[in-house]
Predict the 3D structure of the following.
Amino acid sequence: MAPEHVVFGGIGMGLDLAGTLEGVLEEPQSSNETASAGGLVFAHPHPLYGGTLRQPLVHHVANAAREAGFSTLRFNFRGVGRSAGEFDGRAERDDIRAAAQFMRRRLQPSRPLVLGGFSFGSIMTAAAVIAGEPADALVLVALVIRSEEFSEEELVGLSRFRGPVLAVCAEEDTLASPEVVGPFLQSLDLDLTLEVLPGADHMFNERQREVGAVVKGFLERRFVATGTETTRR
């Protein structure tokens, strides 16, 4: 199926939104007519450094998730592309929440909803869940533990999340070093899968397909192979 360009959010949702957000919704890459195995919302890296829904790693992760049978939603944070507003640095967590709520309405009630993001997108995903947005699993790629947007102390709130968590790190990442990310997430007693790509840097240059393959494997193990249904965390 062709990508569906969508608009969602807006004032009056009970969230800190500047207006509507634009996104691209895509259905699983399958020839059959069965419903998707679930939904993945995946957020792009920092808007002030060129992050958009078309960023290569975001594209490859979404493509791999569809190969696993998942519907996917990529979207632009506020102030990017045709999304209303301007960069805030913290309120973008409500952009994640608006995207999650939109995707949830498109899924069958029993299907799992996975939230994820890359770099800044992973920080905002964590922040959205800490703020109370339900999800069945998290995919955190290059999660920066010590950032300008959210402190390490605030991210400790992830310890309340009980669903499976995939953290993907790059071995040579100076912003989200696996030596920092791994022990921090392990200290939260999460149901954690930690994957480190040898030789990769923060942007996973030339390695985006490998990240997608890791995400696909995680979704297949946790949801597709077992037929797991939703139990919102």
